[in-house]
## 1
Amino acid sequence: MDTMKKPVRVAVTGPAGQIGYSLLFRIASGAMLGADQPVELRLLERAESASSARLTGTMMELEDCAFPLLEGLSAFRDPVEAFRDADYALLVGARPRAPGMERADLLEANARIFVEQGRALNASASRDVKVLVVGNPCNTNAMIAMKNAPELAARNFSALMRLDQNRAEAQLAKKLGCRVADIDRVAVWGNHSPTMAADVSFATVKGEPVAGKLDAAWLHDEFEPVVAKRGGAILAARGASSAASAASAAIDHMRDWALGSGERWLTMAVPSEGEYGVPEGMVFGFPCRTEGGVARPVADLAISEALRARIERNVAELALEAEAVKAFLPKH
Ligand code: NAX
């Protein structure tokens, strides 16, 4: 008897890019949704010729892997078609910062993409679609897509801050000489930008609090800046921005959202419902738990004054980003 589940549709944008090149193969292998879950990949790229040619090559390689779980593979130019009945959408493609481009120009160029993709999801995706925005500035891009998809629940939308959590856990494990798997309750609050608040005030190793084991100078002078500036350090070392680690974090994010986190904490940027003083609708990194496909920030944490101030800096930064793109948000 065939015990396989029905295939699910996974839409991925920017599949010809460097994150796409790591991500697609892991989705198709079953790393994201499990070894018993067939997937149909629906890829959305720009028509620009270099991307098109690279996409053809990537699709040839996907075929050549002969993944038993890959039940469909198609490419689209039109987001409404790419997202039709999608159960999952990983929005990776975005406009990179070009030399001389101001931050406001970058926000605006991306806003146009995420207005279009939010509307397209609203028009054609499954009503339960789980959307992960990876393309930067990912929190604000996710907020724009969400606001332009009024028929979908706000909490169907999220942005990637799992890479920041994974980076924080890896640094902590190195410092404490333990396994990453022994660590839990590390959180990264706020915006996926150097302002992010990597926080170990609730962190545990093998269930024991780490708080007493770390000195304040290491936390302040090494841990926090290393995590916040890791993207820049990878770029300097590799001559290209983080790709495999970003793809791996996107897999972790979607897997834990779809299959459940249990008691473990995972950092996801989700639209605030007013938790911890974060304005409603702001897509903000919180420590979350997931159950039954629903992600919720961990409730009732006793936040220190210092952490509160860091959360407020992130709120202020995201409010400025929202102000810069307000022309792209529906007026209601
Ligand atoms: P690449 O420039 O290698 O690839 C981007 C791909 O997206 C290109 O193939 C491009 O043609 C395509 N694209 C652009 N606009 C599109 C659109 N409207 N529809 C469909 N496809 C479109 O970038 P890559 O290194 O893969 O990074 C992708 C995005 O992830 C960037 O915005 C990057 O800043 C962001 N990142 C986010 C991270 C996070 O933790 N949230 C970490 C890694 C990464 O920096």
Note: Residues 105 and 245 are 27 Å apart (CA to CA).
## 2
Amino acid sequence: MNSTNKGVLFVCLGNICRSPLAEAIARHKFIQAGLDLPLASAGTGDWHVGHGADERACDVATRHGYSLATHNARQVAVADFDRYDWVLGMDRSNLQHLQQMRPAHSTARVGLMLELAGLDDPLEVPDPYFGDDDGFLAVLELLERAVDGLTERIVAS
Ligand code: 4NP
């Protein structure tokens, strides 16, 4: 059993690279682990609202058996802190934004994705947007490890 039923929101800056990849990987791995939870992703910024995922993220996802085909970027909202049990930022800047938005009454677990997944090196998922394809592959591999850790953590909670 696990103590979460409201699920997990993954948050990055643009909601077109890191957090949609985290969501897609979790969608895949949680099902394998028998976890049936709502999953979503959002960005702290609004530049890409309504856009699909970055083409480089789509390509690396497809090559590894995940799909970002239906992704529709959105911005994180105050109501998300009631809608989800876990609100996970990809880097410290995302987390700082989330902590500033978080309503005082919220019981959501808000933290760094990698830290809550039990990883501490690195502690942040690097932003691949201004880099090359290798950066997207590195992010995907890091997020696969992180989702494994998060799955264990949620199953045990
Ligand atoms: P993400 O990457 O936060 O992983 O989705 C980015 C996407 C877009 C921008 C920055 C980071 N941007 O500056 O538009």
Note: Residues 12-18, 47, 127, 129 surround 4-nitrophenyl phosphate (CB under 6 Å).
